Amino acid sequence: TAQTTENEIKMASFSVVCAVAVLALLSVPAQAGDPSGGWLSYAVYKAPQPTDIITRLSATMVVPDTPKSHGGSPAFWFGVQTSDGDGALIQPIMAKWLGDGFYMFQEIFDWTDERDEQSNPIRVEPGDIISASVSFVSSDRSYIMNMTSQRTGKLSNYRYKLLPQQTKTESVAYFVLEHQPFLCTELPPNGAVTWTNIKVEVNNQLVPSPTFVAEEEGPKCGSKAVVLNSTSVKITWNA
Length: 239
Hints:
Elements (H helix, E strand, L loop, with lengths): L1 H26 L11 E8 L7 E9 L12 E8 L5 E10 L4 E9 L4 E4 L3 E3 L4 E9 L4 E8 L5 E7 L8 E9 L13 E11 L2 E2 L6 E4 L7 E6 L2 E5 L3
Antiparallel strand pairs: 1-11, 1-14, 2-8, 2-12, 3-4, 3-11, 4-5, 5-6, 5-7, 8-9, 9-10, 12-13, 12-16, 15-16
């Protein structure tokens, strides 16, 4: 009948509209960048302007105790990134559990091309004092990364040149605990790490009292970031 045909046309049109809507949703690219979902807790510093450049960032950290359970991969690091979190994350990994011990190494995950680079890992022991820095070289838009184990004197050095397609500057600094554990005993039993002697330079000028803000991304085991002062940041958890 005419009424049946009209209803069929309406239903068909509705189905087409729904299909188009679904396709439109699927065509929207997934949002990716930093802070990443793998972060537990972190502290962040943002330069006054998103076009500013963090030209140097440095800090010291004591390697935490050996986890009672060895199946996790907690990583303690600081790094620089763009204000939108979509550029190169340049991160000295000051201690990451790799199954048989903690290691320090340099890592860059670049959201510009979604590639990851790492230097060779160097074993570090609990109680060792690790000093690290990242420094910007304007002549070729690169970052020089240096890290030293006080106990062994071993060095980890790396240089990463920002990709031409990255037009934004690195204006944000992070101090992070990354990789959620399956068990809380996969985190070090001493329950805290502290970065000290933090120094931030923006546009080649030392920031006298940088303001850090404690944040949570995917906290586990009661983890939280604590800003002690302008030169010290702590992350705690229940192991």
